[in-house]
Amino acid sequence: VVLENVKETTKDCMLIMLVENVSGLSEDDGDFIVEMIPELCAAVVTFTGNIDGEEFAKKLNQNHRARKQNITARCLEQTKSVRAENIPPNTPSDYITVYFENEKYGGAQTVDVQQLPDEDAAIITFGDQKGNA
């Protein structure tokens, strides 16, 4: 879920408490991660468990504290590809495929891995997520 209209002066601990209050989850327990993106006046909340992002965004948008600070929430669009960085040299593409297909790291069907050895990176493309959503 992306949080928008986050002022540059907003501390990440305040957003963490806001997410905890709205969701009933705990950042200390590893239920979610908040990543501040000050140059976009935004933050991204990544939930590690099975949570309805639409429902969370709706609750946050109705929260008086969030409204007071003009913070809004919306779900990120599902992606077909991601760029993974800091991949050790000579990592087999099969290893990358199995890694991303593991439930612990997303559990999505991987259809292509394009390695970028000069950049220690890879572009991973996933299959249709509609069945997995």
From TrEMBL:
Organism domain of life: Eukaryota
Protein name: PAR14 polymerase
InterPro entries: Nucleotide-bd_a/b_plait_sf, RRM_PARP14_2
Residues annotated as domain PARP14 second RRM: 1-77
Pfam families in UniProt: RRM_PARP14_2 (PF23245), RRM_PARP14_3 (PF23085)
Source species: Sterrhoptilus dennistouni
